[in-house]
Amino acid sequence: MAEIVLDKVTKTFADGFEAVKEADFTIGDGEFFILVGPSGCGKSTLLNMIVGLEDISGGELKVDGSVVNDIDPKDRNMAMVFQSYAIYPHMTVRENMAFPLKLAKVDQDEIDRRVNEAAGVLELKEHLDRKPGNLSGGQRQRVAMGRAIVREPAAFLMDEPLSNLDAKLRVQMRTEIAKLQQRLETTTVYVTHDQTEAMTLGDRVAVLRRGEVQQVGSPKELYNDPANLFVAGFIGSPAMNLLPAELDGDRLRLPMVELTLPEDVRSRLAGRSGADLIAGVRPEHFEDAALVGDKLDDGVTFDADIEVIEWMGAELYAHFGVSGSASEHLADLAEDLETVGMSGGDGATHVVARLDAASGATEAASLPLWLDTSRLFLFDPATGENLTRRAASAPTDARTDHQPA
Amino acid sequence: MRGRSTSDRMLWALGTVVVVVYALVPVAWLVSLSLKPAEEITDGKFFPRDVTFDNYTGASGVFEDDQFRAAMINSIGIALIATLLAVTLATFAAYAIVRLDFPGKTIVLSGALAIAMFPPVSIIGPLFNMWRSFKLFDTWPGLIIPYMTFTLPLAIWTLSAFFREIPWDLDKAARVDGATPFQAFRRVIAPLAAPGIFTSAILVFIFAWNDFLFATALTSTDRARTVPAAIAFFTGSSQFDFPTGQIAAASVIVTIPIIVMVLIFQRRIVAGLTSGAVKG
Ligand SMILES: Nc1ncnc2c1ncn2[C@@H]1O[C@H](COP(=O)(O)OP(=O)(O)O)[C@@H](O)[C@H]1O
Ligand SMILES: [Mg+2]
After folding, report:
1. Most exposed among A14, A127, B88, B205, judged by the fewest C-beta atoms under 10 Å?
2. In a domain, B280, yes or no
3. CA distance B54 to B51
4. Is residue A165 within 6 Å of ligand 1 at its C-beta?
């Protein structure tokens, strides 16, 4: 049980590369905390600094109030699950799980008790005397988990623990890790590059980009109120549609439609009239106009030439193109988000709308679509800042509001 | 092998037989010579007519020879100590080279390789004089030191290749699990590098065991003379009687420890020990 405080924690590697820049947030006692971001953004480095495998170049790391910057990893009482599992191939499953306890000089009866208990929880009982080489990927993953939980550590640190499993097993283990963490109530820091994993598992999530923390918040906050363009584009699947927009007084021109901005948004955009902006629309904020009913007046309606339809059963994804693209502002972002669609330089933008399954949308036909204007996001194309952010006007906690300059 | 045609397999078998025969005929000849009585030695026949163990246990046999017995003890002692020291040192050195980033790392490695390529015979003269002033001449350390010098580079290279194969995450995992750096090395890394340790142990042992150059140049009595050198000092019962039979017997005996070493360690040189550390 531990509260972990990062106070401007910075990592500069020997070659001068700054992998983590002033990470500044608090991981609450018993919290399931996620570090998410594209690969190479410094997640593992940050985790390794917390566990003590990497030196901290600047700032302070506090666990339960005391600074641990210079404490050896063996004395931090944290357990780690590695992406490669890092289970010891020359030891049996039982020996692997008992290893940290042996080092801590726990007596043999207690070791047996704890190993058996953990093996029971993780359904490894019948494999205790086997070598890891003969186990399946999922079983090895459990052994790595088992080695972590037998210690009853102050915190669990997991570095992409599920990324080596196949998709089905990954979803299954995800649920099991969530259940386990709920039961043990141990502070957990979990690293992943998969936003779905981050959103489903985390109590709170920190989004990283190029070593900088973009936003810290609950999955809901990140989704509904992203601090900037990067978080908006990274969180959510299918991703938010990003379109070029032009502000003209209280009117906003999108490639497919022109609309009047709601009052509260307008006041926040004061002084930007005539500016180019980037508009963000989540796929579910489109709807088949025929199905909207009385909310029709809260948005705008336009005709879209549907190209492809993906029918998912409960809903359907309608894909259509609009002319005009914000790609010149998004190239940088697209690179980080590892998406290709965004920076398609042909002057058109690909849009995904998530419609009710009852929609009569058909491929290669025009369909009146409704856009919920109250849910529209607007971003500053230069800084990426979310101009429509609700929390921005009244930040509750400075730590959760860390924004890049 | 499945899918190979019969003629393919025949060719393989033939090749194998040729190589094995080529390698083993001299050894078989040696065994045969050592089992022949003195008068048959020069008869040019491959198989001895009357098999005798005189050359081993007879009155003039090698086992009755004080010089040979002393040489045997020297050989075993010197080779084992040199192996132990060289492998221990090489293990730490290789680990440091693989795991730590220190300036001059490549210089250490290439320097080690340079030493391995250095012809030993070129330092025999100076070494002879130095050893006499240091009182190392004709002592066990006097041989152990040069053996270590010439085997360490090879051992370091072999071991660093093995250490490189071990995922670094295991080391990190052990540290997080509560191990000191030394515990992580001893309980996780060293066991995984065991095949490499045994491989280099065999190499060092064979070098020390078979060495003739240093053994003749740096020894003068039974105090430190090893078997390869001692064999050269065998004398027949008379000036005109060359002790071919005894030399053959001694040579056979001297190969036995090597074979035993290899057989013991071969079972431990199982590669793929690290499989299972990472995902399957
Ligand atoms: N030892 C190192 N020296 C220099 N740069 C490093 C080192 N380790 C990692 N990096 C760099 O730091 C960045 C962050 O790496 P990492 O934390 O592993 O990213 P990820 O978010 O994928 O886990 C990467 O760009 C990587 O190239
Ligand atoms: Mg990583």
Report:
1. A14
2. no
3. 9
4. no
Q: Indicate if B176 and B232 belong to the same structural domain.
A: yes
Q: How far is CA B159 from CA A307, B110, B171, B194, in A?
A: 61, 15, 16, 9
Tokens coding A238: 């299918």
Going by pLDDT thresholds of 50, 70 and 90, the confidence category of residue A66 is very high
Place of tokens 């088992």: A146
- B167 lies in the same domain as B247: yes
Domain count within chain B: 2
Check whether A340 has a pLDDT greater than 60: no
Quick one: pLDDT at residue B3?
Answer: 56
Q: Model's pTM, two decimal places?
A: 0.82
Give domain status of residue B279, yes or no. no
Average pLDDT over residues A270-292: 89
Q: A204: which 2 tokens?
A: 């709170």
Same domain, B165 and B205: yes
Question: Which domain range does residue B44 map to?
Answer: 1-52
Domain annotation covers residue B170: yes
Instruction: Check pocket membership of A209 for ligand 1, CB cut-off 6 A.
Output: no
Q: Which residues contact A196 (CB under 8 A, 6 or more apart)?
A: A237
Model confidence pLDDT, tens digit, residues B86-109: 999 999 999 989 888 888 888 888
CB contact under 8 A, A51 and B275: no
Q: Residues A205, A222: contact at Cβ < 8 Å?
A: yes
* Of the partner residues B175, B187, B277, the one whose CB lies closest to the CB of residue A73: B175
User: Do residues A331 and A389 lie in contact, with contact meaning Cβ atoms separated by under 8 Å?
Assistant: no
Residues B67-76 have pLDDT tens digits of 888 999 999 9
Is A327 in contact with A343 (CB distance < 8 Å)? yes
**ipTM given for this complex:** 0.83
